[in-house]
Specification:
With 106 residues, the protein is mostly beta strands. Helices cover 0% and strands 47% of the residues. It has no helices and eight strands. The strands form two sheets. It has a five-stranded antiparallel beta sheet with strand order 3-7-4-5-6, with no helix packed on it. Strands 1-2-8 form a three-stranded antiparallel beta sheet, with no helix packed on it. Strand 5 and strand 6 form a beta hairpin.
């Protein structure tokens, strides 16, 4: 699961058990992160920084332009340093209440 610290939820929350104003964490399964050849084709962008072949697929670390790592499982071959677009379908995004306090790494 790729996990990115999320923003503080400000609007009315459609997520069960999460109150407006709560810090949240965004989670997406590795296989649901789609890398695009052209940066312009993704809603987000980043750079491939680590490639590990796991026998039948590649596990990549993509350093995003907002200074977070995203982990991706893919059958596609990428090179270290490739600039990519990142697409995640909304239905594949989970929002969970963060256990970290806002403004803290703990």
């Amino acid at each position: 699961v790729t996990s990115v610290p999320g923003p503080v939820l400000r609007a009315a929350s459609p997520w069960q058990g999460i109150e407006p104003g709560s810090a949240v964490q965004v989670e997406v399964d590795f296989q649901h992160v789609i890398l695009e050849d052209n940066e312009e084709d993704g809603r987000l962008t980043g750079e491939v920084k680590f490639i590990l072949y796991k026998g039948n697929h590649y596990h990549l670390t993509v350093f995003t332009d907002w200074d977070e790592d995203i982990f991706v499982d893919t059958n596609d071959v990428w090179d270290d340093g490739d600039r990519v677009g990142i697409t995640i379908a909304p239905q594949n995004i989970r929002i969970v209440q963060s256990t970290k306090k806002e403004g803290s790494d703990k």
